[in-house]
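[step 3/7] fold_predict: job queued, chain A
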Amino acid sequence: MSEPEEPLPAGIERRSFEGRSRLATRGEPVYGEPTADGWRAWDPNRSKLGAMIELGMDHGLVGGETTLYLGAAAGTTVSHVADFAGPTYAVEFAPRPARDLLAAAESRERLIPLLKDARRPETYAHVVECGLDLIVQDVATRGQATVAVRNAGFLAPDGRLLLAVKARSEDVTEKPEAVFERALDRLQDRYEILGTERLDPYHEDHLGVIATPR
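[step 4/7] structure written:
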């Protein structure tokens, strides 16, 4: 696969791991990823945002963004984000992966774990600043677009939403195309859609969405 046309933000580079050029950020390893000279490979097969960058989507990242990450899980992707972004609020609801997220945050002073439910932004609004540059969302639940809409108020007017819609988390019986269409319709309550792309071959039945607040 060809390298993405979109420029890489500061803090992300292409580095060689075992003779292969891969996306990488500088930081302590989190999920057994290859490392070399202080850099850690960013596996797009385990990261929706990594796949969006690999596919050359117009992510608009420059590095240093203040970020809200929804669905941080054990920290696989959000740890990479915290390596190149600014303050990164990481929301995760399940206690077990949250313990791993806390471990990933130990070596990352910019990573701020929050054991909260992304469907209820009012529970962390007193912690997360408004006027953020970026929301990254990767939640495995029904109503993924509604989650993004409820959190839109944290973004600056020129901020960006980088969202991965998982069709199977919405309805395992419905065609992914129908799920994606419905999600995009819901997003337009609060966002202008800037671009979409299926995340194959890295993630089947996923749609990457880039949007900005209305």
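[step 5/7] annotate
Residues 176-187 form the longest helix (12 residues).
The chain has a mean pLDDT of 96.
exit 0
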